[in-house]
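Moderator note: this is an archived Q&A kept for reference. The question asked for a predicted structure of one protein chain; the sequence and the answer are reproduced below.
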Amino acid sequence: MFLEHARTVHASPVSERLKQISELAVSELVTNVAKYAPGPHLLELELTDTVLRITVWDSSTDLPRTYGADPGRLGQHGLEIVNALSQQLEIHPDRVGKRITATVPVSDSAPGPAQNRPSV
């Protein structure tokens, strides 16, 4: 809905690829918050000419663990998926809780996830 509004009202370039990637990234990040962080949480979306920033804040001070790729592992692939979809994945402790921001390029020809490195 956010991206559709940006496309129709603000004439922002929103490709089908960006819509699909953002829906999956938001789903994974919000699911993690609902599953592992009690208390309030916040979803923030910011669209610029070059990137979509998806930020999730929650009140838990426990930082998420990122795991290496393991097709045999059941579950706990959420951040792995978001990292693969993003140009950058950042995890920052906050005064109360933490913020996780995934940066997704708007352009279909933008550099892919090969440069991804989560920062804590």
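Archived answer notes: The two ends are 30 Å apart (CA to CA).
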